[in-house]
Amino acid sequence: MRKRQPKTYTRLTHPLVRDSRDEPFRRATWDEALDRAARGIERNRGAFGMFSCARATNEMNYVAQKFARVVMGTNNVDSCNRTCHAPSVAGLSAAFGSGGGTSSYEEIEHTDVIVMWGSNARFAHPIFFQHVLKGIRNGARMYAVDPRRTSTAEWAESWLGLNVGTDIPMAHAIGREIIHAGLANQAFIERATTGFEEYVRLVEPWTLSLAEKVTGVPAAAIRELAHAYARAERAQLCWTLGITEHHNGTDNVRALINLSLLTGHVGRYGSGLQPLRGQNNVQGGGDMGAIPNRLPGFQDILDPEIRLKFESAWDTVIQPHYGLNLTEMFEAMEDGTLKAVYCVGENPAQSEADSEQAVRRLKALDFLVVQDIFLTKTAEIADVVLPATAGWAETEGTTTNSERRVQRVRKAVTPPGEAREDIDIICDLAARLGHDWKYADAETVWNELRSVSPDHYGMTYERLEEHQGIQWPCPSTDGLEPTYLHGRLWEPDPGKRGPLAPFGIVQHDPPVDLTDEEYPIRLTTGRRLDSYNTGVQSGGYASPLRRGEYIELSPEDAERYGVVVGEQVQVTSRRGSVTAPVWVDTALRPGLAFMTMHFPDEVDTNALTIEANCPIAGTAEFKASAIRIDKLPIATIVG
Ligand SMILES: Nc1nc2c(c(=O)[nH]1)N[C@H]1C(S)=C(S)[C@@H](COP(=O)(O)OP(=O)(O)OC[C@H]3O[C@@H](n4cnc5c(=O)[nH]c(N)nc54)[C@H](O)[C@@H]3O)O[C@H]1N2
Ligand SMILES: Nc1nc2c(c(=O)[nH]1)N[C@H]1C(S)=C(S)[C@@H](COP(=O)(O)OP(=O)(O)OC[C@H]3O[C@@H](n4cnc5c(=O)[nH]c(N)nc54)[C@H](O)[C@@H]3O)O[C@H]1N2
Ligand SMILES: [Mo]
């Protein structure tokens, strides 16, 4: 048996440059590296895009989007939110005008029913899951809707193991059952929503028996969830990537939001919608404007008054249209309209769907500068590599978690070698390109943000300290707002209620990559407890828990293929092929396989995935590929 040791990454400690991509990197001074970076970016003015880091601070993200908009005159700025929860933001904004999760963590402890839909929080959100467990201890009933019987599902009252990509049929059948059982909250529907009649017509064909046929979940289990959710005094609907990482992710989100509108489980203490965000500061990155359609404070670029406010604050002209999102930037690389990228703390060479295509596009760029804490696969393609300090423990600032709580982070560790703070590096580059911003420290940046973002105005560093973090919106330096959003929907006075919430009229649309005789297995990809995303940051330790990449199969499929744990097999999709050892897991049903994206140096899972994107949010269908598994002629066992 061959012993495997997942790759470990070493910290970047000094700038690296090279004259051409065929040469190895050589060490450079900061001056030389920054001069080269400035020249490479400047010569591609008009064809520039920026990737900003969802792990770094709010202050860093504010400065990054300002660099794109003010120094480079473009709204082409985005982050990994695109690969992740962009459909949640789009769906929630369409329904309520704001893209944030509506409740607080505390409320999950004081609710009656918790639905974990396409979310393996036990592995992926362990801190939030502690609140869930307290809720269960307090008497809440939990339902898990996931094709795999996950570690989260083990804690649930009931597991609804649906077929991948059948969430809309499931949601519509629940909605229909609630209506037919007379459990819809008519008073709330009339007071707070629009489009109910159309919704009734939309869900009418989705009987429990049709839903059972399409989703594979017994009608009785769907009925039980519908009744439990609708009858609960308080209920929380939580979802993550099982919902969003589909070619119709935003439609999936709308289908879930509909259930809260039908029952009035939104806008009240203990009842709400929680898209558990992925990276420690992916919520904050978007709030800070490191997205192509919003200025800081989630303010719409298309609004002339908002633009005017920022133009006078920043003494600049803001492009009056949305920029390209991450997915569109990769498409623009293909047609040659995007030629230079400033990539801060992202690793798209490994995290993009159809990674071989993504790498080819990055290699075709005229200029790529990567600013990271490790030498990633994306950095290996770059012309200039800038070593940054980590947003966590090496930098002062703030981050915003999934309940919209802004919290201080502090510098506790001295960064290695010549690594410098992200903000300082970006500002030095801005200075070389003619914009001399003077930020004494992170707090100065934060106060500038506060001056342009009403939702953050009341959060001074002092108050953040005093309250151990504050949730947005926080428009005033006196007092705090409720822990949940959209209480306005319950206002008796229509004048104070604000815009009503529309039901989303969305149809079932199965995964793009169909299974057939040649590719008979449905592959879904996701996470394990022991590793983090592209593996860069969790690559530094050895643990018996971290067993490297495997293709996980059901016991039935393993037997059918005649393969055993550790045996290498060839895994092939319509896009690529990889070799991976087998793991047998009873969490999987026949016909379903699971892989992670944590160990791309051993097994590049994203060589298999499909770049079929949600047209509204730009998120790829990471959760549904069709694959074939072939036994190798000579059996090799690894472990
Ligand atoms: N340990 C660990 N924690 C992490 C991360 C990590 O890499 N490691 N990454 C962080 C990030 S960036 C994110 S975005 C979050 C993600 O957190 P999660 O979204 O919870 O993680 P995933 O494992 O990607 O996907 C969740 C579940 O979706 C299910 N699923 C697949 N297809 C479908 C479907 O069609 N319908 C439904 N209903 N479910 C489906 C999968 O079986 C899986 O259990 O985790 C964050 N936390
Ligand atoms: N097959 C498959 N692919 C997926 C997914 C899936 O479920 N399946 N999920 C998608 C999702 S949800 C996500 S979020 C993406 C994640 O994709 P990426 O964001 O590209 O991957 P990460 O590994 O999180 O990359 C983080 C990088 O940031 C660097 N970094 C960390 N902190 C700092 C800092 O403070 N400053 C700087 N400058 N750099 C820093 C790290 O060293 C690392 O290189 O992957 C997506 N890809
Ligand atoms: Mo994510």
TrEMBL record:
Residues 11-431 form the Molybdopterin oxidoreductase domain. It comes from the Bacteria. It is an enzyme of class 1 (oxidoreductase). GO terms for cellular component: membrane. GO terms for biological process: respiratory electron transport chain. Keywords: Iron, Iron-sulfur, Metal-binding, Oxidoreductase. Its EC number is 1.17.99.7. This is Formate dehydrogenase H. It comes from Streptomyces chartreusis NRRL 3882. The gene is fdhF_1.
